[in-house]
């Protein structure tokens, strides 16, 4: 009788004959050769596994370094010192205080640009002057006005630090290569000369980019910030929690303790499991067609965004809640029922408090997922350009991930840097939420 | 006039809640005094009578409040719209929208009315809103008091307050569970409704089997479109879009399956407890990174990198390629595949492993010849779920894959996907009747059905595996 014997590494070996004919040494040799080969194969499999893990972690490292190395420079903002004499007569009222109406009418930007050009008396000609103007931020005049209206004593100051344009900022941070031919650069040769002069006079500096954390979006990268997006995201998440958490807890208690076995209950379970794997953009379509189209809710509003994300995270939180309810030993419930509690009392007063840490952990993880979600929010119009920090849940707003999306679509190099920094902020939020979940689990986890 | 700080929904809710708390204590002390005077023990614990009264105070009022808020907005909009139409008889719809927005801003004091007519209408509008707000305040409080009065009159010792309250809660819990059904119905009906409108204007065969996709052509006057009823239309042949979707998903799986599977094998079979404890959470971080971050990485780092690489190799590759989007999407799916595969592999019973090791196979042979074949159905399920996820993924492809639909299998080409087209077609203008927006819903229902089918198949495949041991 013969059969294939894969373990000798020979395809059609017949076990009986060849080995019998061999001497003991030959036999041992054959076995050790084949064993070596088999062990090598095992080692290869192990190495492949190690390589896969290294590769996956490598991707993570590359992703993070890429974002960090692109983003950390956005923490600083370049400023230029300009000697400005604010004409008091055109701004102050009769009482010596700032007259807001006069200040509004005054051409602040013109003042800043004119004062800046005064530092370069030999620059003449329209196009040269325009290129010189381009070194200073378009919002410099507006920001100067804001600063002076806030603190009128500044009006006597003779020199001010104002923001440079994003191109100069990029140059000073080394993001624009001066070795490139002039045509491919956003900073031209003549501008380089002026910037050099400014640098020699010590009129350039880099300061912490506060605008990034205190402003909403702007067309000018140097005044664009994420505060509006963070507030928008916070509102969205608040609505999501308010809607999803109670619904999920109630649904989970119903399914665990009250649902009569039958078709309807099965159907609910199937629906929950299926909803958990529906692509998020489909929830966006739902929000667009039902909430905006049918119920006429306001577009771009955190209210609608929160509702859509609540429906999206509901299955996740229900599943987590059910798991933590099940983790509570039945003896707790039995004891409660045994001393005469009703089923509802046993569920609400005895099981639920013990399951609460688990529910909270699951909710935080679900909410973290919702925080990173972009597509459904785009569908309901939260992708608009909004310069105001929203003050109510029906105001048009945007969210942090959507802000990242908007900025990474922009042409300016400076927005690239800012979206990287915004990603870092988003990741910090996500990591702290997850750490909180881990902490809660460790702190309150009970082993029964 | 009631100040607006009280009439907004949030503060009104607080007011109603505080009223309910007061009613709770009234109900509680009422049952105590009643049972003392009648010398009868109440049926339920006394706080249930408080809860009963408080629920009657709060719940009807809050429902009325929310419905009033939801309903008055459109009514006021309709009224001011008719006012505007009376004042400016010949206005197109864009102008009307503009005026409506203007009206909103005038009445909230953001801008000054441009002319007297506008000011008059704005005043009427503001008055209407104040009136509606006052009425909202009064009505919801009235409902609250009526509810409280009704409930307190019902309170007597023999009344079964706890039973009633628990019955209500049980019904409420059922409704909460049924939200899952309602959501599904909402998704299916909204997709279906708009799709039917689309297919009533556009042939289904042309949509599913057409090879030309250029919906935005509807706005240009260049050649190459069909004309229906004199309206220039784009063409909506879905095949190139579907092909692009599948190409990107295929590339993603090409990255995710080997890496995820080998990582899972290593973790389940070779890794020490310590390694597992470090590697598993690290891989989960990869899963927790928002997709917009991957999209950013794909669009601004990987895409240009591939383009530059192609440039050195003498090829002209656009920065938006199926390879960049698919590759990065693969990275995103690695942890998904690895954790699902890990579960499936560890679920293979001990006896099979012991049997294999017992007849003298190495660990490697045990894995490749016994464990993996046994886990095969479960692994297939995991891969199908991965594909479903790749098809439904939006942000990475929106940012990195491109928008031009072409029928190609070349990973270096720029392709477009179903999700990209949905986003493209629905951002910006939201007129529900244009063929362009309706086609997005037709794509949406296709996406929904495809992913649902993949999930169902994945589930049934891995279920069948469970019964084998």
Description:
Chain A is 63% helix and 4% strand. By secondary structure, chain A is mostly helical. Chain A folds into three domains: 6-70, no CATH class; 77-215, no CATH class; 227-444, Orthogonal Bundle (MetI-like fold), CATH 1.10.3720.10. A three-stranded antiparallel sheet of chain A has the order 2-1-3. The two termini of chain A are 58 Å apart. By secondary structure, chain B is mainly alpha-helical. Chain B folds into two domains: 4-159, no CATH class; 235-466, MetI-like (MetI-like fold, Orthogonal Bundle). Chain B contains 16 helices and four strands. Chain B is flat, with a radius of gyration of 31 Å. Mean pLDDT of chain B is 86; it is low at 218-231. The chains are: A mainly alpha (448), B mainly alpha (469).
Question: What is the topology?
Answer:
The complex is a heterodimer of chains A (448) and B (469).
Chain A: H1 16-21, H2 24-71, E1 76-83, H3 100-105, H4 108-118, H5 126-133, H6 140-150, E2 159-163, H7 166-172, H8 189-200, E3 204-208, H9 211-214, H10 227-258, H11 263-275, H12 280-294, H13 302-327, H14 330-338, H15 343-372, H16 375-379, H17 400-408, H18 413-444
Antiparallel strand pairs in A: 1-2, 1-3
Chain B: H1 4-7, H2 9-38, H3 46-87, H4 93-107, H5 116-154, H6 161-201, H7 204-209, E1 213-214, E2 227-228, E3 231-232, E4 235-236, H8 239-270, H9 273-288, H10 291-312, H11 322-346, H12 350-358, H13 363-392, H14 395-400, H15 418-426, H16 435-466
Antiparallel strand pairs in B: 1-4, 2-3
- Taking the alpha carbons of the first and last residues of chain A, their distance comes to 58 Å
- The fraction of residues assigned to DSSP E strands of chain A is under 5%
- Based on secondary structure, the structural category of chain A is mainly alpha
Oligomer: heterodimer
Helix run count of chain B? 16
CATH superfamily of the largest domain in chain B: MetI-like
What is the helix tally of chain A? 18
In CATH, the homologous superfamily of the largest domain in chain A goes by the name MetI-like
Tell me the CATH topology of the largest domain in chain A: MetI-like fold
Average pLDDT confidence of chain B is: 86
Q: What level of helicity do the residues of chain A show? A: 55-70%
Nearest-integer average pLDDT of chain A:
88
Helix content of chain B: over 70%
* Backbone shape of chain B: flat
Spatially, the strands of the biggest sheet of chain B line up as 1-4
Second rung of CATH, namely the architecture of the largest domain in chain B: Orthogonal Bundle
Spans of at least 5 consecutive residues with low confidence of chain B: 218-231
* Major β-sheet profile of chain A: 3 strands, antiparallel
| CATH fold-type name of the largest domain in chain B | MetI-like fold
């Amino acid at each position: 009788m013969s059969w294939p014997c894969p373990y000798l590494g020979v395809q059609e070996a017949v076990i009986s004959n060849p080995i019998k004919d061999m001497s003991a040494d030959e036999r041992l040799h054959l076995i050790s050769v084949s064993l070596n080969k088999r062990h090598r194969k095992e080692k290869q499999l192990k190495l492949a596994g190690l390589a896969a893990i290294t590769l996956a972690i490598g991707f993570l490292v590359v992703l993070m370094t890429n974002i960090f190395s692109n983003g950390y420079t956005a923490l600083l903002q370049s400023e230029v010192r300009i000697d400005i004499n604010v004409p008091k007569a055109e701004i102050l009222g009769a009482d010596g205080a700032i007259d807001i109406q006069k200040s509004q009418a005054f051409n602040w930007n013109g003042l800043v640009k004119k004062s800046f050009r005064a530092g370069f008396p030999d620059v003449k000609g329209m196009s040269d002057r325009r290129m010189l103007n381009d070194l200073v931020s378009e919002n410099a005049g507006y920001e100067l006005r804001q600063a002076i209206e806030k603190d009128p004593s500044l009006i006597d100051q003779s020199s001010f630090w104002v923001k440079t344009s994003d191109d100069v900022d990029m140059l000073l941070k080394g993001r624009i290569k001066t070795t490139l031919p002039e045509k491919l650069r956003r900073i031209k040769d003549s501008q380089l000369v002026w910037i050099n002069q400014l640098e020699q006079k010590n009129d350039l500096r880099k300061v912490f980019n506060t605008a990034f954390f205190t402003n909403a979006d702007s067309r000018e990268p140097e005044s664009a910030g994420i505060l509006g997006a963070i507030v928008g995201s916070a509102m969205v998440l608040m609505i999501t929690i308010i809607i999803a958490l109670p619904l999920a807890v109630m649904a989970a208690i119903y399914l665990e303790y009250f649902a009569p076995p039958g078709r309807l209950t099965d159907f609910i379970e199937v629906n929950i499991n299926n909803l958990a794997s529906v692509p998020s953009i489909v929830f966006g379509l739902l929000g667009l067609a039902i909430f905006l189209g049918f119920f006429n809710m306001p577009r771009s509003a955190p209210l609608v965004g929160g509702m859509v994300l609540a429906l999206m995270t509901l299955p996740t939180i229900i599943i987590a809640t059910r798991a933590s309810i099940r983790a509570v030993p039945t003896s707790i419930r039995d004891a409660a029922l045994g001393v005469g509690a009703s089923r509802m009392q046993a569920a609400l007063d005895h099981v639920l408090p013990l399951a609460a840490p688990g529910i909270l952990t699951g909710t935080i993880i679900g909410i973290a997922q919702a925080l990173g979600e972009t597509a459904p929010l785009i569908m309901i119009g939260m992708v608009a350009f909004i310069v105001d920090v929203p003050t109510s849940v029906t105001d048009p707003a945007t969210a942090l991930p959507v802000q990242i999306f908007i900025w990474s679509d922009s042409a300016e190099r400076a927005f690239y840097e800012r979206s990287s920094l915004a990603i870092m902020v988003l990741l910090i939020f996500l990591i702290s939420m997850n750490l909180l979940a881990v902490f809660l689990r460790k702190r309150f986890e009970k082993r029964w | 006039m009631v100040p607006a700080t009280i009439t907004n929904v949030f503060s009104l809710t607080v007011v109603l809640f505080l009223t309910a708390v007061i009613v709770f204590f009234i109900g509680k002390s009422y049952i105590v005094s009643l049972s003392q005077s009648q010398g009868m023990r109440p049926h339920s614990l006394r706080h249930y009578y408080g809860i009963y009264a408080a629920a009657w105070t709060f719940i009807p009022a809050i429902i009325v409040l929310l419905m009033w808020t939801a309903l008055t907005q459109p009514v006021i909009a309709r009224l001011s719209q008719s006012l505007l139409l009376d004042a400016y008889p010949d206005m197109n719809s864009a102008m009307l929208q503009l005026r409506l927005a203007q009206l909103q801003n005038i009445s909230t004091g953001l801008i000054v009315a441009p002319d007297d007519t506008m000011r008059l209408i704005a005043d009427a509008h503001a008055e209407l809103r104040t009136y509606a707000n006052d009425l909202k305040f009064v009505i919801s409080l009235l409902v609250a008091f009526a509810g409280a009065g009704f409930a307190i009159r019902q309170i007597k010792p023999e009344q079964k307050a706890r039973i009633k309250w628990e019955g209500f809660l049980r019904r409420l819990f059922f409704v909460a569970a049924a939200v899952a059904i309602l959501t599904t119905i909402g998704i299916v009906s909204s997709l279906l409704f708009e799709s039917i409108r689309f297919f009533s204007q556009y042939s289904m065969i042309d949509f599913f089997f057409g090879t030309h996709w250029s919906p935005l052509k509807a706005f240009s006057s260049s050649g190459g479109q069909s004309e229906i009823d004199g309206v220039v239309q784009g063409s909506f042949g879905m095949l190139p879009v579907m092909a692009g979707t599948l190409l990107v998903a295929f590339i993603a799986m090409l990255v995710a399956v080997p890496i995820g599977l080998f990582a899972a094998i290593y973790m389940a079979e070779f890794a020490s407890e310590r390694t597992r404890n470090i590697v598993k959470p690290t891989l989960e971080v990869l899963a927790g990174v928002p997709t917009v971050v991957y999209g950013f990485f794909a669009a601004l780092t990987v895409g240009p990198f591939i383009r530059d690489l192609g440039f050195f190799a003498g090829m002209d590759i656009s920065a938006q390629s199926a390879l960049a989007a698919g590759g990065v999407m693969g990275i995103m799916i690695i942890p998904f595949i690895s954790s699902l595969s890990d579960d499936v592999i560890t679920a293979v019973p001990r006896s099979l492993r012991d049997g294999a090791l017992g007849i003298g196979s190495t660990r490697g042979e045990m894995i490749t010849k016994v464990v993996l074949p046994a886990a095969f159905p479960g692994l297939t399920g995991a891969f199908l779920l991965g594909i479903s996820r790749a098809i439904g993924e939006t942000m990475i492809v929106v940012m990195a894959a491109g928008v031009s639909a072409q029928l190609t299998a070349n990973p270096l080409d720029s392709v477009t996907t179903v999700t990209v087209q949905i986003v493209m077609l629905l951002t910006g203008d939201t007129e529900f009747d244009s063929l362009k927006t309706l086609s997005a819903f037709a794509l949406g229902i296709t996406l929904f059905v495809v992913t649902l089918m993949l999930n169902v198949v994945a589930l049934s495949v891995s279920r069948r595996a469970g019964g084998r041991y």
